[in-house]
Amino acid sequence: MFRIGICDDERNYRDNLNRLCHVFFKRAAQEYECVEFTSAKELLEYFGDKLTLLFLDIEMGGLSGIDALKYIKEKQLAWRVVFVSNHLDLRYSTMDITVLAFIDKPVQYLPVSKCLEIAIKENKDNLTVRFNAMKDHVSFQIEDIAAIKADGHYTVLVTKDKKEINLYDSITKCEEILKGLQIIRIHKSYMVNAAYIKDWCSTGIVTEDGRVYPLGRKYSKESRKAYDNYVKGLIKERNVHE
Q1: Which of 24, 42, 141, 156 could form a disulfide with 37 if both were Cys (CB 3.0 to 4.6 A apart)?
Q2: pTM, entire model
Q3: Topology of 2-125 in CATH?
């Protein structure tokens, strides 16, 4: 079930977004459900099923949409977020896997439909991969994997919520399993998810959870190329204004 969230302190804007989503899903002949919130505070108190896509107003009384983003991520309330604003100068520029786009008020059908199309595609592309574990296999969606690090002949998978899972696959085997995906080899002992790279320097990589991973000289050029290609592809796919 595709689950839409709409967070805006003005009812007419919520009603308009709800109507546009209804038009899109009716044309797509796809089931969905919509949950509305009148403030960021109300959103952060939500305990329902995770939202697939959240349309989030930037300017609301109390906590702003941008300030709420940190807590939305921590609580994993929404898989993708689209910021909505009626002031272009408040547009928030960031490279973030969660933040899909920024659209302007009054909201029109075309950018809303593009955001929904992109979210549906990215949801389908978030493949599930399987690894060997102690007694059986374990499976993870790509975006749940933050990093993989070698541990002798085996490996440890680090999830985006900082859990560590012991695998029986070598890091070379993991690289084969993940070939062509966004998790890239940066060192003889490490792979990281390009979606969670926050900072990049000549000797190391910092991920969103604050961890620092060494960058091996042998892997420096190819890993940087893979990361740049990932970023360029994401920007191109998420252009909702053309």
Answers
A1: 42
A2: 0.88
A3: Rossmann fold (3.40.50)
